[in-house]
User: What shape does this take?
Amino acid sequence: MILCPKCGSKYQEGPEGCPICSRGVDRMGNNDVEDTEEWAFLMNVYNDTEAEIVKGMLEAEGIPAVIRYKGMGTFLKVYTGTVIDVDLYVPRDRLEKARKLVGHMDSGVSEEEQPAEPFRRKAARFYIIYKILAVPIIIMVIISLIRALR
Assistant: This one.
């Protein structure tokens, strides 16, 4: 039995990590991911496809990367097939090397200094609201037309 350093629960050691808090497990099931306090924000990308490309490039250079979806990101990936507004994190000690690799030289602006509501996030919210509201409305219109034709 192992004691999880994050949540304190006991569990059997295995590739899936802690079953309570999932410490030590990234999205792909790799158990080499550390606690999030040791990770630093690298960049925000438009969608999960772009995030996977950047993550692959970083990992090819030996820099582990973690993709974090905001809000209902995982749900939206299932519902719409893609996620908009995705953050990438790398180990704090490799942040500068990662920034050089991705060309993210933002003149020293830290994550805390980033604008709280950039245009991309507003556009992403509009897209999410559109997808969530438009699909049921279109389905209702189609059902109404079918009933009217009977």
